[in-house]
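Entry 14: structure prediction run for Enolase-phosphatase E1. Input pasted below.
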Amino acid sequence: MTATLTARWVVLDIEGTLTATSYVHVTLYDYARPRLGPWIDEHPDDPEVAGAVAQIKELGGLPADASTVDVVRVLHGWMDADRKIAPLKTLQGLIWQRGYADGDLTTEFFGDVAPALRSWHESGLRLAVFSSGSVAGQVASFSRTTDGDVTGLFEQHFDTVNAGPKREAPSYRAIASALEAEPGDVVFFSDVPAELDGAAADGWQTVGLARDGEPFGDADFGTHRTIRTFDEVKVVPR
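Run finished. Output tokens:
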């Protein structure tokens, strides 16, 4: 039986919700990994890159004069551990942005994703993203997908820099404020139970994606409404 929810905003996670986790951990990570060092060396005067490198040295316990090789070693360690650390996400996002622009990358959505996004948008619901990937990376990934350019479907993008950690209620409070929405007017879709807990703690409606074959496919979603595809839920505008 299809559940029906009413909301003003639909906020979506990406990895494991819109795309397979393997797309991020294999395709995107493998694309970024060998390009991190060259990107740092080729953009020494870019404030965003320089700021990220300074943060990496501080967080990685490196001296201020540490080499690019040392910085990349820290970055690769974080990637191997799947650490959601802001300066890493910043550099990855810039590299992926170039990759999508050059046609090297194409985001692969699950088959139920694009029809749901377009249906919600056409019905008058407003769409946003909250992902650990940088805003630049999010926009780039939506610009070239297996279902075309879907950037126009989304009004807002949030990451751990402009909103905060994905498992903490204050991050969702900040997003609701930025959306100028009451928490109860927002529904959040994610495959990670702890992220749904954070959203629910701020009063958001929550839906867990337990997709077959994904890392959280068999997770305990507790009291959160849980679906396997977007076909199992209907969201209508208030």
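Notes: DSSP finds nine helices and eight strands in the chain. Will compare against the previous run tomorrow.
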